[in-house]
């Protein structure tokens, strides 16, 4: 997918040439609170003047003094080329998301192996599941081949084991995914189960499921924007 470099008041962004090709995890730039509507810092209530200048957070668009909006943090969900100024609250959120883009996204793209059951079938198929490089499709390869558009996914339920009433660690062993078939209102369900006969790949499967859980949260946030 071709990309282009664009400049906005917030900074330089590398975005897809066509909006339809954007990542399903992406966020749009927020509108900035107009300067005339913001005589004071929206965090500490300091009054703006010639010495105390106002700055806009690139993630939420609110207006702050330099002390409350001094951090420059990467914001890949808005496709910024360089770290951008964010308020303390937004900077914390963006820093947590950095792990997804630096580590978990690569895990999803590298893929993992699962037994996949379609709908109410009692038969499962061993398939390699991965996220496409453009982040827009979940690709499943085995004897069959499926490409599920990420934006069509309606629910993801991670299946775990190991929980005890007294507490204890849980381990992700699979997931149930529901998605809409393009062009219809039909909802299809798939169940993914980590194979017990592939002990060497159990850890990889669990990591992939954890990454998918995080991706789902980002997907829901993008939809709610």
UniProtKB/TrEMBL annotation:
<dbReference type="InterPro" id="IPR052113">
    <property type="entry name" value="FYVE-type_Zinc_Finger"/>
</dbReference>
<dbReference type="InterPro" id="IPR000306">
    <property type="entry name" value="Znf_FYVE"/>
</dbReference>
<dbReference type="InterPro" id="IPR032031">
    <property type="entry name" value="ZFYVE21_C"/>
</dbReference>
<keyword id="KW-0863">Zinc-finger</keyword>
<dbReference type="InterPro" id="IPR017455">
    <property type="entry name" value="Znf_FYVE-rel"/>
</dbReference>
<dbReference type="Pfam" id="PF16696">
    <property type="entry name" value="ZFYVE21_C"/>
</dbReference>
<keyword id="KW-0479">Metal-binding</keyword>
<protein>
    <submittedName>
        <fullName>ZFY21 protein</fullName>
    </submittedName>
</protein>
<feature type="domain" description="FYVE-type">
    <location>
        <begin position="35"/>
        <end position="90"/>
    </location>
</feature>
<dbReference type="InterPro" id="IPR038632">
    <property type="entry name" value="ZFYVE21_C_sf"/>
</dbReference>
<keyword id="KW-0862">Zinc</keyword>
<dbReference type="InterPro" id="IPR013083">
    <property type="entry name" value="Znf_RING/FYVE/PHD"/>
</dbReference>
<dbReference type="GO" id="GO:0008270">
    <property type="term" value="F:zinc ion binding"/>
</dbReference>
<dbReference type="InterPro" id="IPR011011">
    <property type="entry name" value="Znf_FYVE_PHD"/>
</dbReference>
<dbReference type="Pfam" id="PF01363">
    <property type="entry name" value="FYVE"/>
</dbReference>
